[in-house]
Amino acid sequence: MNKKNTGVTLLELMITIAIFAILTSMTVPSFLNTLERSRIDSVQQSLARDLAYARQEAISQSLPISLCRSATGTSCAASGGWNQGWIAFTDVPGGTPGTVDSGEEVLRVQEAMDGRDDLDATDDYVQFSSRGVLQVPSTGTPEFEICSPENNVARGLLLLRSGSVVPSRYQSGIYYLTVDGGGSPVAISCS
User: Does the chain have fewer CB atoms within 10 Å around its N or its C terminus?
Assistant: First the structure.
């Protein structure tokens, strides 16, 4: 009687493991980069939604509404980046602009971002007037820059005077918010 061998040899097993290791080493970095891009895109979208929400609430409530960085979810932070979280709140005239005073209502709270990511802005807070236009800062165009830990992924938002939110655009291998005097895109600076 002939017995047929149905197992695998040690050599076949080692070749299979080597092929698996090569394929894994090629796909894992790409997968991690995809996760990183997805995480940063999610923060960008969340901030854009909250800015649009604050603008809409300012119009519907006929009150100034502010958005500021906040670590507590109840008051504005005096320092640090926007990655600690942010809040939208009614900023009633007569109080201190950009701070949650007595009688002002916190409308929305965004928890802190992933500790590895960075979210910086040109301003400590922004405020929409009862007409939905940007009231504070009174000059300039607020910019928000979101960066991954190794600065591999960068996204941003530009808040126009009209109250509209413009996401970063992609051109020539970079994400940008503004252009220079010659019309060339200026890359988001993750530093």
Answer: N
Entry field: residues in the chain: 191
Token pair 């988001």: residue: 188
Distance of CA 105 to the CA centre of its chain: 24
AA letter at 162: S
Q: How many CB atoms lie within 10 A of CB 43?
A: 21
The CATH code of domain 11-137 reads 3.55.40
- Give the phi and the psi of residue 28 in degrees, each rounded to 5: -60, -50
| Nearest residue to 119 (alpha-carbon basis) of 51, 47, 36 | 47
SS3 63: coil
DSSP state of 84: G
* 3-class secondary structure, 23: helix
pLDDT for residue 31 is more than 90: no
Q: What digits encode the pLDDT tens for the residues 118-161?
A: 999 999 999 999 999 999 898 888 999 999 877 678 899 999 99
Are the CB atoms for 85 and 47 separated by under 8 Å? no
Tell me the pTM: 0.82
CA atoms within 13 A on the CB side of 12: 4
188 and 181 Cβ atoms separated by less than 8 Å: no
